[in-house]
Amino acid sequence: MAPLRAYQKAMRKRADRGIIPGYCSIVIWRGSLLHVDAYGFADLERRVPMRTDTLVRLYCMGKSIIATAFMMLVERGECALTDPVAKYIPAFGDVRVVAHPENRRPSQLDVVSSKQITLRHLLTHTSGLSYGKEFNLMPECPAEWSYDDLVKAVEQGQCSNIEMFCDRLAAIPLRRAPGDGFEYSYGIDVIGRVIEVVSGQALDTFLNEAIFCPLGMFDTGFAVGQEKLSRLAALYGSFDTAQALGEASASESPPSCAWALTRLDGAKPQSSAWANGNHCRVLSGGGLMGNNRGGLVSTLNDQARFFLMIARGGQLPGGPRILSENTVRNMVDSDWLCLPDCLGQQAINTGLPGVTAQGPFGWNALGEIGVEADASKIGADAFELGEYGYAGIAETFWSVNPSRELVILWFTQQVDNRSWTTPAANLWLAARKAVQKPTAKRNRTELPAQPAGDATARSRSAPRRRLNGKCKVSGQGLESRLPVKRPASFFEQNHIRNTSV
Asked: By C-alpha distance, which of 104, 113, 275, 88 is closest to 196?
């Protein structure tokens, strides 16, 4: 287990230097606990240690849960992936496509789409929808400008539920025709509304009854109650982001180092936009609404339950079956972008920052899937062939690697720094070295660390397991953090043998 011990040492140094406030991580191999760690602080100001039961904002990582809930309805025969979204949300019946890609506003030259948006298009971000800008930052492209009024409407409370949000979204021209390309989008938010229409229940109610309660995920939801606020992690980012959100005044002097952490989501847990009563009424399956609100909150313990269920084919050991093994295989085993009713070909990322690795990539029901068969062409920030996963902008990551029988999760709560910039601090590289891949010879070539540098653009989803830094590491470290003993409930209740380092 030397690679995991080396990772733990390197990552704890990152927390000690103040690049991240704290973190928690877990590696499950063949159903056994190979590694677990919690270190640093969940709340720097209150000196609350990070734990595996710390509540964190999932942001885009929550999309995988919404997609799973939707596939439960597909499995029941209540809807189909090829159904047009207009069947459930009539406002999408006559969607239009922008006349020119540089247009920021609807135009009389916009044309009615010749193709209907299907539910599979929504799941794979091939619907023609896009995204608005987050964190009250200035939009950087025509697509972000086109959604700016909608972002503000949610932030100001003028759009108060997901039904209203979807109706307004449908009135904004698509950036391209459905099936014409991959563009990260509000698609999963629309899927959340489809779940409501098909099930006849509010999204949070359906999730609780169909997934959270059966799996024992009692800390997962769209709002944090008073009794749990003490476990809610603070959110951190750069001073510039804090100023954009109004969390730091223009008169304040910026910190001396660019990577210093500034609190973003309220000065105390009771002020958080995820605290019950303050929470966003637009239940965001996609993970983020307005400037910085909406989306699911959860813990490492709960998310380990969920993704172990996925890795085991739809059922936790000794627990109720959530999905059939056949449905889970259809969800995760192949690249949906290659399907004729999607793009019909493999996608290649030649410059889109943050959402996928560079080069060929695939997408399944739950997120990105590795499609490169040549291991020598896979960088440290890319999925291996058949490995799939997702991430959130506050650096919450998960992946399932079937060929290595690995489930890996890594959480912190900061949005602007690269959480790791060297191979030694990369949990995914450490886990790959710690277990022998049964079907292929391991590539023992050590990848060089990529140079640090500022990100050119922000993404709704954090780049997975990225090595190139957003900012260089320098300056004096903070005092050492003490590791916190993990709660035993997750491992005991799910009969996972502890073989941790």
From this structure: 88
- Kindly report the pTM of this predicted structure: 0.89
**How far apart are the C-alpha atoms of 12 and 20, rounded to whole Å?**
9
Q: What local confidence, expressed as pLDDT, does residue 483 receive?
A: 32
If we measure between CA atoms, which residue out of 36, 53, 44, 49 comes closest to residue 19? 44
Asked if pLDDT for residue 108 goes beyond 50, the answer is: yes
| H or E, element range at 154 | helix 148-155
Give the CA distances from residue 355 to residues 215, 361, 387, 462, in Å, rounded to whole numbers and listed in that order: 29, 10, 16, 7
Name the pLDDT band for 391 (thresholds 50, 70, 90): very high
Q: Are 309 and 303 in contact (CB under 8 A)?
A: no
Rounded to a whole number of angstroms, the distance between the first and last alpha carbons of the chain is 6
Task: Find the mean pLDDT for residues 185-206.
Answer: 98
Distances (CA, A) of 29 to 33, 311, 317, 346, 406: 6, 10, 14, 30, 5
Nearest-5° Cα angle at 498, 496 to 499: 130
**Contact of 397 with 464, CB cutoff 8 Å:** yes
Q: DSSP letter string over 391-431?
A: EETTTEEEEEETTTTEEEEEE--BSSS-S--SGGG-HHHHH
Q: What pLDDT is attached to residue 353?
A: 65
| Pairing, β 388-392 against β 96-97 | unpaired
27-36, 65-74, 96-105, 252-261: the lowest-pLDDT one: 252-261
Q: Is it the case that residue 464 has pLDDT exceeding 90?
A: no
